[in-house]
Write a structure and sequence with these properties.
By secondary structure, this protein is of the alpha+beta class. The protein contains 9 helices and 17 strands. The strands form 6 sheets. A 4-stranded antiparallel sheet has the order 13-14-12-15, covered by helices on one side. It has a 3-stranded antiparallel sheet with strand order 3-5-4, with helices on both faces. Strands 8-9-10 form a 3-stranded antiparallel sheet, with no helix packed on it.
Length: about 350
């Protein structure tokens, strides 16, 4: 998602772009994507990250329109608000404190999110009764959702419309600085380019070392379940629960530090389904048809990294957890930086040096 958005934006800006992709054996974070364009939980304690996220989602409607025009693909993007539903009083009080702290940080006018009680929440779901333990939810009109498979396809088709090229099955083995650019060796072929952007998910740390950068990333497993299609009953996306435009219901997602294990567990599935049924008991009547595990890409503080190598000018790294949410920004700001050699103000605080600051004695 990250690399595709940057490549699309570069090609749309007129650059000659070649995408090298390892192939389906790679640990793709996109496999576990929930399709949310999400703001309300991003950036407490990190105001620049909140602003980056909010501005990206503010630009998502135009981004989706541009992609539709370039590819003919309707992304099913909807920005009608998003919910985090609370089960029990303890969760409700914790969510209220979170909202209060965020409003204090960002300013009440900038952080558009409020807690709604059970009755107001039930009014949003006239065709699905809440479970008896549901106490309310946070609701933010800043949030929305999209079909992530259509998004990926649209960015690929858009890239090729603007004369970019895509090369699957090319796992990069070496990146070498040359006199006027770079050579990228994939074992079977050597590619030359004036500039290089590394946006390789969990492979980013290894590849970044080839251009003199230390960019720490780690995996976190998330398991997801999908039900049969059903009539539209959930008009709003929720954290951990979303009805797709095709009618299926996505249930997720676990947060497990298990290394590079993409497997699934009965324990993980049981926890997700128990929570889902406690929220909306009618879900117990639906049949589960698919389940899988995928790996998120996380930095030590959960924020993104955007950096150009000092040792190899012209080589860039971009990595983040929120590939769909930030796609509009990646397609707009990153190309400007790469092509104009001027890092946008919005990205200044997201270098990897923040992970290597020595604590005061």
């Amino acid at each position: 998602m990250v690399g595709a958005a940057i490549a699309y934006g570069l090609a749309r800006a007129g650059a000659r772009v070649r995408v090298l992709d390892e192939g389906d054996t790679a640990f793709r974070a996109a496999r576990g994507n929930f399709g949310l364009t999400w703001v309300q939980t991003k950036g407490l304690g990190n105001q620049p990250y909140f602003e980056l996220t909010r501005n990206s989602v503010d630009g998502w409607a135009d981004f989706a329109s541009d992609l539709h025009e370039a590819s003919g693909v309707d992304l099913a993007f909807r920005r009608n608000g998003g919910l985090i539903i609370c089960v029990g009083e303890e969760e409700a009080e914790k969510r209220k404190r979170f909202i209060g702290n965020f409003k204090q940080q960002a300013g009440h006018d900038n952080y558009d999110c409020d807690f709604i009680d059970r009755n107001a929440l039930q009014d949003l779901f006239p065709n699905a009764e809440l479970g008896p333990e549901v106490t309310g939810a946070s609701f933010s009109p800043m949030d929305g959702h999209v079909n992530p498979l259509f998004l990926l396809r649209a960015m690929s088709d858009g890239l090729q419309k603007y004369k970019g090229s895509f090369h699957a099955g090319h796992a990069v083995q070496e990146i070498r600085k040359t006199g006027n650019g770079f050579e990228v060796n994939t074992g079977s072929q050597i590619f030359s380019a004036e500039k290089v952007v590394i946006a390789a998910g969990l492979g980013t740390g290894h590849l970044a070392q080839m251009i003199g950068l230390d960019v720490p990333v780690r995996p976190q497993r998330g398991q997801i379940l999908v039900t049969d299609r059903t009539e539209p009953v959930f008009p709003y996306p929720m954290s951990g629960l979303r009805q797709t435009d095709e009618g299926t219901v996505m249930i997720g997602a676990t947060r497990e530090d298990v290394g590079f294990d993409t497997g699934t567990t009965v324990t993980g599935y049981a926890g997700m389904t128990r929570r889902a049924v406690a929220t909306f008991p009618m879900l117990a009547q639906l049949r589960l048809v698919r389940g899988w595990g995928a790996l998120r890409v996380l930095t030590p503080d959960g924020g993104p990294v955007y950096v150009e190598s000092e040792a190899c000018p012209g080589a860039f790294v971009a990595t983040c957890h929120s590939g769909v949410t930030l796609a509009a920004m990646h397609a707009k700001l990153l190309p400007r930086w790469v092509l104009e050699d001027r890092k946008p103000t919005e990205l200044q605080t997201f270098g990897p040096e923040r992970f290597h600051v020595q604590p005061a004695a």
